[in-house]
């Protein structure tokens, strides 16, 4: 069972050891004490308190879409695309869905954030946003692992407080807007408004935009007129901010990634088999220091080799 670190123990060394052991053991359930989880969440809260709602990051970096508690896929991402102590990462939200391994997924991601705060970005997604604004508990798993109501309720409260502090947007290379849902300049909810530094051409100006947390996996009706209209809106917004593209992840994409809205939007899915009706591929968008992009396939803990879905290089 994982217990809190000893008094005087080095925080980073402690959490790096936890990361290493989780990576070595593979996709198995871990036993966490109440004291360990409380300490981890408090340490993560301390890191998040100094985090802006908009994070700025430069390549090389790996961009990960929805994983939804696919803990084995997270481990495979690190194995395939680079260990978290060697590579920058951005996770676009929808980290946990309350399913099996939700705690393991949360623990390893928070440990990475504590150890590498400048190189490891975790955004708030639709799932996290819904948990924050609703009265629902984090996951039933808390009640199972901690039958004492005082303990699971205390952990649930800290988790909600932590999720509330997660940033909602990342700007990559001052050119790519990364969110879970969408971004609009038509502001209706001030609580979700952020001020974003514009690209190089307008670097002395900021733009106020609203981050929208859209219902997951509910595609709106698509018509040529609707595509043209939405493409025009996105184009005008990106142009006004001197940005080139938007990246999101709130809808499961069977191929793992998809270009839409006239190639102005990339949707990424990193967790495998997130839909019951089809086996989607998991993909990580890897950008090197020269801005060259590759989409790397993730097999997952029970994934199958998909030779029909090749990795496609792209230069942004």
From TrEMBL:
Family annotation (PANTHER family): SERINE/THREONINE PROTEIN PHOSPHATASE, SERINE_THREONINE SPECIFIC PROTEIN PHOSPHATASES DOMAIN-CONTAINING PROTEIN
SMART domains, sorted: PP2Ac (SM00156)
GO cellular component, one term: nucleus
Origin species: Caenorhabditis elegans
Source superkingdom: Eukaryota
MF terms in GO: protein serine/threonine phosphatase activity
Classification via CDD domains: MPP_PPP_family (cd00144)
TM ranges: none
Protein name: Serine/threonine specific protein phosphatases domain-containing protein
Domain Serine/threonine specific protein phosphatases: 32-304
InterPro entries: Calcineurin-like_PHP, Metallo-depent_PP-like, PP1_catalytic_subunit, Ser/Thr-sp_prot-phosphatase
């Amino acid at each position: 069972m994982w217990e809190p670190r000893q008094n005087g123990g080095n925080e980073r060394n402690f959490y790096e050891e936890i990361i290493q052991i989780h990576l070595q053991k593979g996709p198995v359930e871990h036993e966490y004490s109440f004291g360990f989880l409380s300490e981890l969440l408090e340490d993560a809260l301390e890191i998040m308190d100094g985090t802006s709602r908009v994070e700025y990051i430069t390549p090389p970096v790996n961009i990960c879409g929805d994983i939804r508690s696919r803990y084995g896929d997270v481990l495979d991402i690190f194995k395939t695309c680079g260990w978290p102590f060697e590579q920058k990462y951005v996770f676009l939200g929808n980290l946990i869905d309350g399913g099996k391994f939700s705690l393991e997924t949360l623990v390893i991601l928070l440990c990475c954030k504590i150890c590498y705060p400048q190189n490891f970005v975790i955004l708030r997604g639709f799932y996290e946003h819904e948990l924050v604004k609703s009265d629902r508990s984090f996951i039933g798993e808390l009640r199972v692992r901690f039958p004492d109501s005082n303990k699971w309720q205390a952990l649930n409260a800290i988790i909600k407080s932590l999720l509330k502090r997660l940033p909602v947007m990342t700007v990559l290379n001052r050119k790519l807007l990364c969110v879970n849902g969408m971004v609009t300049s038509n502001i209706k909810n001030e609580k979700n408004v952020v001020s974003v530094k514009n690209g190089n051409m307008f670097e002395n100006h900021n733009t106020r935009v609203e981050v929208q947390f859209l219902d997951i996996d509910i595609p709106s009706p698509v018509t040529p007129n609707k595509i043209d209209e939405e493409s025009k809106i996105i184009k005008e917004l990106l142009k006004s901010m001197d940005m080139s593209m938007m990246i999101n992840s709130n809808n499961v994409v069977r191929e793992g990634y998809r270009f839409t809205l006239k190639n102005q939007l990339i949707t990424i899915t990193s967790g495998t088999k997130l839909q019951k009706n089809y086996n989607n591929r998991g993909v990580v968008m890897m950008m090197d220091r020269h801005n060259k992009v590759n989409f790397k396939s993730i097999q997952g803990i029970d994934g199958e080799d998909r030779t029909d879905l090749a990795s496609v290089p792209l230069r942004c």
